[in-house]
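Re: inosinic acid structure - here you go.
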Amino acid sequence: METSNVDVVIGMQYGDEGKGKIANQLVSTGEYDYVFRFNGGGNAGHTIYLNGEKIVTHLVPCGILHGIPSVIGNGCVINTQKLFDELEYLEGFGFDTSILKIAENAHIITKDHILEDSKDTTIGTTRTGNGPCYKDKVSRTGLRAKDIPELESYLVNMYDLIHKQPKKFLAEGAQGYWLDVDFGDYPYVTSSNTGVGAVLNNGFNYKQVRDVVGVIKCYSTYVGAKGYQKDDERFEQLREIGQEYGATTGRPRQIDWLNIDEVNTACQMNGVTKLIVNKMDVLDQVKCGWNFYQDGILNCCEDEGTFMLKIINHISRYNEGIQIEFQGQLH
Ligand code: IMP
Ligand code: MG
C-alpha cells in the first residue's frame, strides 16, 4: 500500500540559516499536500519574501502562504495569543488561515511559562516561554491543545492525518542542529530536538522520510548569551550587509566564519541528501571573506570558486551522494 512521505528542511548551524526561504521554494513547486512544523514555537522567526513583500512568521508553516494546508505538529509549543495575532497578520496579506491544523497533543505556553522565561539571564533565550513549556510537558503537568476550547476547530490527530491516506508532506524545521537540546552546546541550546529524529516524534515512521534538505549560510551566526563573535571588523560589516538581526527579538546576531566540521557532522547525523549554502552574495561583498574553519584551523580561500570547491570536496567525502547548491540572499 502506498504511504505518506515527508521531505524535511533542517538548519545545520544555530538557526537563521534561511530555512524559511528554502521551505518556501520547495512549497512553490506545488509538490506537497501538507506543510508542517515539528519543533519549537514562537521562538522561531522565518523571513520569507513573496511577490516583493517581506513576511515574517513564527509559528505558522509557510504552506499557508500558498494555500496549502499546514499543521503545527505535536512537537511544537503554542502561545495561543501569539498564534491568533499571527493568523490575523497573515489574513491582512489576504491569506486563508482556515486551512491551518494543530496537533491535538501539542503543548500550550502559558503566562507562567513566559514569566519564568523572562527571568532567564544565563542562556539568552528568546523569552517566549518555550523552555518552561517543554519542562512542564516532560513533567506531565502541561496543558495541551485539546484542553483549549478556542483551538477546537483546528485540532487534528497526527495518526489520522499521516497514516489514513497517503499524502506528501514538507516538514519545516525551526532553530538549527547545534541548538538541539541533546547535541548542541548544552546549556546554550533550545529546549527541543531540532534534527530529523524530531520529525519521527510527530508521528511519521522512519521509512516515510524521503529527502532531508540541510540549510546553512556561508558564514555562521548565533544569538544567545555565550560569547561567540571574535573581534574582527569584517563581522560588523557582515552583520550590516546580511542584516543579521534576530527576526523574533531584533537582537544583533554574533558572527563567525563557517565551521565546516559542524556542518559536516550535522549532515551525517541527519542523513542530509541535499545541502543548500545561502547568502553567497553577502559574503562576496566582504573583503578577504572566503574563510572557513576545519579542525579548528582557519582556512582562507583566495576566491569564491576555491571556497565552493573546498566545501563540496569536504562534505561529499563524508556524505555520499549529497547534492550541494549555492544560493544568494533572497533567491
Ligand atoms: P529558546 O529557544 O527561546 O529557549 O532560546 C534558547 C537559545 O536558542 C537562545 O540562544 C536563542 O537565541 C536560540 N534560538 C531559539 N530560537 C531561535 C531561532 O529561531 N533562531 C536562532 N536562535 C534561536
Ligand atoms: Mg530565524
